[in-house]
Amino acid sequence: MPLIFPPVQYLIAETPSAIAAGQTRYLGPGGATTSGGWIMPRAAVVTEWRVTCDTAPGGGETFTCTLFINGGSTASTATISGASDFDSGIEYPDLAAALGQSITIQCIASGSAASALFRYYAVVRF
């Protein structure tokens, strides 16, 4: 019996440990790592993605998040900044990922940002 994929898939995960100040991590199915991502079972288009943190980065600090496809950055970047900002995301980036390519979100914490746990998702259409 062939596999049947729904036309829309939600890629959802969270970090098991905090991302600390000055760190760069890649958010994928296994949490925050130095690499990795969701592998596309067929050609897809990313239609939305969002990152939420449990602790704001702090005054003058940022968490800069960029969607990566197959290890390369895209122009789709969302920034969480300041003492009261806890989430950011992009709707309708419409970025294509081919069969076998990976999707991940790079998160860079600025030099004095607070440590934070993240929850995140990407929506893909096949």
Shape: elongated
| β-strand amount | over 45%
The tally of helices reads: 0
**Would you identify the regions where 5 or more consecutive residues have pLDDT less than 50?**
none
Structural class, by secondary structure, is: mainly beta
CATH architecture: Sandwich
Report what the structure shows.
The chain has 126 residues and is mainly β. It has a single domain, classed as Jelly Rolls. It contains no helices and 10 strands. The strands form 2 sheets. Strands 2, 3, 4, 6, 7 and 9 form a 6-stranded antiparallel beta sheet that branches. β6 and β7 form a beta hairpin.
Characteristics of this structure?
6-stranded antiparallel β-sheet, mainly beta, Jelly Rolls, 4-stranded antiparallel β-sheet, elongated, 126 residues
Break the fold down into its secondary structure elements and pairings.
Layout: E1 8-14, E2 24-28, E3 31-33, E4 38-39, E5 44-53, E6 58-69, E7 72-82, E8 87-97, E9 102-109, E10 118-125
Antiparallel strand pairs: 1-10, 2-3, 2-9, 4-9, 5-8, 5-10, 6-7, 6-9
